[in-house]
Design a protein that fits this description.
By secondary structure, the protein is mostly helical. The chain is built from three helices and no strands.
Length: 66
């Protein structure tokens, strides 16, 4: 959904970005760039989720990790 949302927003507002890069790399059959973009999205998603989980532990005293 993250990739689809960025593609739609970038298409509507004519913004250059990762969504447009993904579409152009698929149209140009540049699979290395496509895979790199997907890897970057996946890494960012994992890091943001990790930071969120750690922040829950600091902000809510009822949660503790053993």
């Amino acid at each position: 959904m993250l990739i689809g949302g960025s593609i739609i927003i970038e298409s509507i507002f004519a913004l250059p970005g990762m969504g447009l890069l993904i579409i152009n790399s698929l149209n140009g059959r540049d699979y290395i760039t496509f895979e790199a973009c997907l890897l970057l999205y996946a890494v960012v998603l994992v890091v943001v989720n990790l930071i969120t989980d750690i922040a829950y532990g600091f902000l809510d005293p009822r949660i503790h990790y053993t």
